[in-house]
Design goal:
The protein contains 14 helices and 18 strands. With about 500 residues, it is α+β, with helices and mostly antiparallel strands. Helix 11 runs antiparallel to helix 12 (about 410-425). The chain starts with 9 loop residues before the first helix and ends in a 27-residue tail after the last helix.
């Protein structure tokens, strides 16, 4: 039996964790005679014994060499690093969980502000909201919230951190019932490019700051330190299901077509995925969570598998936290990968489904290739496209293209497969992409990630980071001409 967490007031918690910045934020950059003296103690440089480990990303194909990796244990540490970067004109990369697909949380020759040591969860009295520090990973978040019988509709990867997931959108297996992680964000604190604290609850640009952090991508505006969320109740029990089919080309196409309609029309309490995996053996698998009971779910699963009975089927009633741990799976070692994504507003046509199946059939040797469909709709689509920076509010699914390899010699085949898959399948979709599955191959990423919301993100960028201190290949760009009217509040 789990013990109840200590509950402190929301204002007290946010006040305590921000108190250290109040005096510090008023200092001017010019007062520092010795710039290196501005850095906190948790600094790693080239030549240090842990530098090679500190510069690693979860993705083994990424190879970056920052001048400094700064592990920040408090907000003062973060502010010191930002000021040092401003004095030295160093690009700032921000890392929380280290799961960035293209290495945007690292850089060459700049400073990496790592907030993974800045962790903590505090649930407010009554359990309606929680303040969560930016470096808190999902496993810690779920377990701490479960003590108060609350949760958030986040993702399934246990070591992903809260700040990165939320700022890109934040999809998980309760999305159709409760929406995205960013939809529950109600307050955010960040350190801007001058080393000043910006609190969305009190800042004159607070509405814009909060809006941008709800799906506008992490790392472009400042270093997020603390986030406050509206919580949702934890169901006493959830139903976890997994169905697996042996591969056959005909069955694969039929199952994909049926899942498309089935997932779209499912009740909100059901969020599911369909995965087609190449390799040996090739497999088809559907998993998901149902916020109901087994007797209600079983007829729905029978509808999904009407054309082809699964080889293996699992339906289990679990405590929510058990389901979270089950979906997170075991910790895996580092390997190389490349990802892409597409979003679809309508089920694939038979031509689109056929293209998917053919790409799985074409999986090269020594490479793992996966096409994973995630059901959207429900609460995700209740929000208007301009209400948050995340614009994709009329989709019925997202598709994540995935390829993994361990041998360096397999990289060429892996890249060729995923680029070919995208070229063949994406035309059957809305030609939009999910920012958290970032992809450097995209030449029109501004439109694909943010659609009509991009100009407002640029205006917010000007307000918070006019020197472009927080920059990386797909950071929000400074416009040539910025009209303050593009912000709801005056700049």
């Amino acid at each position: 039996m789990t013990s109840q967490p200590q509950l402190i007031s929301r204002s007290s918690f946010l006040g305590q964790i921000g108190a250290g910045l109040t005096g510090f934020a008023s200092r001017s950059i010019g007062m520092f005679a010795a710039p290196d003296g501005m850095l906190p103690k948790g600094v790693v440089r080239p030549g240090d014994s842990i530098y090679e480990q500190a510069r690693q990303d979860e993705n083994a194909r990424l190879d970056f060499r920052p001048d400094i990796v700064a592990y920040c244990y408090c907000q003062d540490d973060i502010a010191e690093c930002v000021r040092w970067a401003a004095v030295n004109d160093k690009a700032v990369a921000i890392r929380s969980g280290g799961h960035d697909y293209e290495g945007f949380s690292l850089n060459n020759g700049g400073i990496v502000i790592d907030v993974s040591k800045y962790r903590g969860v505090a649930v407010a009295p009554g359990g309606d909201t929680a303040a969560i520090r930016a470096g808190t990973d999902l496993r810690m978040m779920y377990h701490e919230l479960s003590k108060a019988r609350r949760t958030l509709p986040g993702g399934t990867s246990a070591s992903v951190a809260v700040a990165g997931l939320t700022t890109g959108g934040g999809y998980g297996l309760m999305a159709r019932r409760y929406g995205l992680m960013c939809d529950k964000l109600r307050r955010v604190k960040m350190i801007d490019s001058r080393g000043h604290v910006r609190d969305s609850a009190t800042d004159k640009l607070g509405e814009d700051i909060l809006w941008a952090c709800r799906g506008g991508g992490g790392g472009s505006f400042g270093v997020i330190t603390d986030l406050e969320f509206d919580l949702v109740p934890v169901p006493e029990e959830v139903v976890y299901f997994s169905q697996r089919w042996d591969w056959s080309q005909d069955h694969a196409e039929s199952i994909l077509m049926r899942w498309m309609s089935w997932a779209k029309d499912a009740p909100r309490e059901l969020t599911s995925t369909l995965t087609l995996a190449g390799g040996s053996p090739k497999t088809i698998r559907s998993t998901g969570l149902f916020l109901g009971n087994v007797s209600t779910l079983k007829p729905m699963l029978e509808t999904l598998s009407a054309d082809a009975p699964p080889k293996r089927s699992t339906i289990e009633t679990l405590a929510h936290i058990e389901a979270v741990d089950r979906l997170a799976g075991p910790t895996s070692g580092r390997q190389s990968w490349k990802m892409k994504s597409s979003l679809g507003a309508h089920p694939l046509t038979s031509d689109g489904a056929r293209a998917v199946v053919k790409q799985v059939e074409a999986t090269p040797h020594a490479v793992t290739c996966i096409l994973e469909f995630n059901a959207f709709g429900g609460a995700v689509n209740d929000v208007k496209s301009g209400a948050t920076a995340f614009p994709h509010r009329s989709m019925c699914y997202s598709l994540q293209y995935q390829t993994y390899w361990n041998q360096e010699s397999a990289a060429t085949d892996a890249f060729a497969w995923i680029r070919d898959a995208f070229a063949v399948i994406d035309p059957h979709t809305e030609r939009k992409s999910y920012r958290n599955y970032c992809d450097l191959d995209l030449t029109d990423w501004q439109r694909r990630y943010f659609a009509e919301n991009y100009p407002r993100l640029q205006a917010i960028k000007v307000a918070l980071d006019p020197r472009n201190l927080f920059r990386f290949p797909q950071s929000i760009e400074l416009p040539h001409i910025v009209k303050p009217a593009s912000l709801r509040k005056a700049l």
